What we know:
Blueprint: H1 2-25, H2 31-44, E1 48-50, H3 52-63, H4 70-105, H5 114-134, H6 144-167, H7 169-175, H8 177-260, H9 263-292, H10 294-304, H11 308-319, H12 329-344, H13 353-445, E2 449-451
Parallel strand pairs: 1-2
Amino acid sequence: MYNYFNLLLLLYVMVLFRRKGKGDQGEGRGRDREEEDVKSQHKDRSYLEVNLEGLMAVLDRLDMEGSGSSKSMDNTSNVREAIKIARRFNQHIDSLKGISEGLRRRVVRDELTLQLKGIVERARDTITNVIVEVSKPLPEPEGVNDIALISDKAKRMLNRIGDASGSHRRILYEFFPAEARALKDILIAMKRDVDVLDSIAKSIDEHASSHSRCRDRIVRLMQMEQEINAFNVKMKEMREELDTLEQERAEVKRMREAILKTSEYIELERIISNARIEYDRLLADVARDFSRLSRAISKYAYEIGFEKEKYEMLKAVMDEPARLKDVNADVMRDVLGRVSDGIASGRLHLKNPDKDIENVYSLMDRLEYYINKCKEYEGIMSIYGGRIMPYKDRLKIIDGDLERVEREMGRVRGMLEEYSKRVDSLKSAMDVEVQQLTDEIYRIYGLNVRITCLKHSHTP
């Protein structure tokens, strides 16, 4: 691990000096040209390839005090600059003390009224007391963490003196003009130093914030990568489940096909199908013959009247011809004979009575045949239907299994699609995070990074 970090830091220092050399050559160029140089360096520079865990360690190492990185160099420069400012600020404090002593020794003019003289003396004493109270030398910073503390202390000192002198500004300039001008010049100089200290402190804080943001981005990237890995594991399991379901479906279909191709099943289906076709034709003939008599039967029922049971028998057969198999042929002939007699006697007035009588006798002649054939076809379908029923029951179970498997396959495919969308979304988010991370690392460390071991590596 020690050699690994030494190698990384060596690469980084080489990058740093290259960047510095190019910066020295361009001191006289404008802002636009400098930005172009930075972009060119960023484009042409070789990359440090590292995974997320390694990158976290590299950033922490680079951010340590005395690590030999550009941050360390910048910190040293910042501390030196802050020391210079603190020393200069302390010189201003000494000057303030001198002004304070001068103000104390100044005698207020005697020609003033006692009341006004008291006001002037209180204003003078207030300012001198504040200067004496707050004018404590600034300590020289020993490290970058001290700079913000010193900056805050200098600002508080400057604010106290500025508030005191500002509240008595008119009295100062009226009765102590030389001291007022000197105080103003010193406070302006102190304000410049405080602004520089504050700028350095903010720069250091921004660097720390940038480092923290980089760490946060790395953590988020790790979390997103873990989520992607988890989704990939689930999707792998789902694909395996889908393969298993596909095999199960193929097996169910094979079993179904095996039944459908069984010679006995095929023969039974053929017999039942043929019987069904012939039976349907027979029932169509029955329905046709009875429909030819529908008007005559209706008029007989309305004008003469059937016995209730016999009329219900007639109506049932006319509504459902298959029920003819349950009818007694002699009873049906008797009913039809009454209809024929009613037509022949003239009690039923029809447009074509002779044709209606002919239709009645035609049906009566075929009645026995119709009833027997109905019973025959019903018997065939009952016998062979019973023999084919085990096959049908098995097919019903198989069809249920097939429906279940295909429904489960649809569910798994839906989840696969949903997980795939989530992975794509995470990858897009990772692209954004990686771009922002590598840009920020380059900005604060001048280091070009290519992150490896991601699901899709990103190069800035």
